[in-house]
Design brief:
alpha/beta; five-stranded parallel sheet; four-stranded parallel sheet; 15% strand; binds phosphoric acid mono(formamide)ester; binds norvaline
């Protein structure tokens, strides 16, 4: 059976830990594994802009012995003249995997339903699971382990990052807290899934409007842009709604003194995070950006060897 990575919980908690272990091993020895030798190609489709995802997947596919094939929105028949299903049926005859950054999660699910090769979600409106593998790897590197740690996500609880944080951290046995205004709730299904998984892994889930409640004793503080790709017209309202949710040095105080700061980037200093925090000693954002490469190589290796 072909394995896909449409969302964080397409793998088991044990497989998540295995992929992070492999990512750490691949970081130490980057060219030891060549599952794409041939070279086999991997389609990288982008319906939204990208720096990290585009570069990390391109370099990662090449590191694994393969050929990255970038397809930008509007440059293929997908979406205009050809359905997702027919695109999947054509691509899977020629490539070893399909990596897609798009809008609706249902598109990712449809691509996966019709593809005979692994489909990887490289960001949808609902989830950003590749980022979470890199973020969890970064926390592992700095803290030694994941289970039992407390993560506080501040800001847009309705974002792809918040949904992925809930599910992926619950899988890792972490205590995940999301502080967000009432109108920006995570997907109910993601919150319920995370709560169910946390009850099995020893983690916990909290969604609250109260920033202080989320931050007490946090080992990791995370935020993301208040204006995700596709929401640019809502900027004014969102900036007003998220007042008080920006990560300032003062606001970091209730977190652990050795607490980490993470942000998937791109970051907007002075809005969701102050320069003092993201450019300060607790920030591990550049490690996380680099770890996109290693984590995605480990993910692809896992999907190829388990499909
Ligand atoms: N964090 C992230 O996915 O960055 P890009 O949008 O640059 O790919
Ligand atoms: N939530 C952000 C993440 C960017 C990597 C967005 O979707 O634009």
């Amino acid at each position: 059976m072909v394995r896909h990575f449409r969302r964080d919980d397409d793998i088991t908690p044990a497989e998540q830990a295995q992929i992070i272990d492999m990512a750490i091993a691949m970081k130490a020895d980057p060219y030891a594994h060549k599952p794409l030798a041939g070279p086999k190609s991997v389609a990288l489709i982008f319906d939204k802009p990208s720096t990290r995802t585009r570069v990390s997947f391109s370099v990662g596919v090449a590191d694994l012995g393969g050929n990255p094939l970038i397809i930008q929105a509007g440059e293929s028949q997908l979406g205009a003249k050809e359905s997702i299903a027919d695109t999947a049926r054509v691509l899977d005859r020629m490539v070893a995997a399909i990596v897609w950054r798009t809008f609706a999660q249902s598109g990712i699910d449809e691509m996966a339903a019709h593809s005979a090769v692994p489909v990887i979600n490289s960001l949808s409106d609902d989830f950003h699971p590749c980022q979470l593998l890199a973020d969890l790897m970064t926390i592992r590197e700095h803290k030694g382990s994941l289970a039992g740690l407390t993560v506080a996500f501040l800001g847009d609880g309705s974002s792809n990052m918040a949904n992925s944080y809930l599910v992926a951290c619950a899988m890792a046995g972490m205590n995940v807290r999301v502080a967000t205004p009432a109108r920006y709730q995570p997907l109910a299904e993601a919150r319920e899934t995370a709560t169910r998984i946390a009850s099995e892994t020893g983690g916990s889930v909290l969604v609250t409007p109260d920033v202080a409640e989320a931050l007490v004793g946090a080992d990791v503080v995370v935020t993301d842009t208040w204006i995700s790709m596709g929401q640019e017209s809502e900027k004014e309202r969102r900036v007003a709604d998220f007042a008080g949710y920006g990560v300032t040095a003062e606001l970091m105080a209730p977190a652990q003194s050795d607490g980490l700061f993470l942000h998937c980037l791109p970051a907007f200093r002075g809005y969701e995070v102050d320069a003092e925090v993201i450019d300060g000693p607790q920030s591990v954002v550049w490690d996380a950006a680099e770890n996109r490469l290693h984590a995605q190589k480990a993910l692809m290796h896992f999907l190829f060897t388990s499909s």
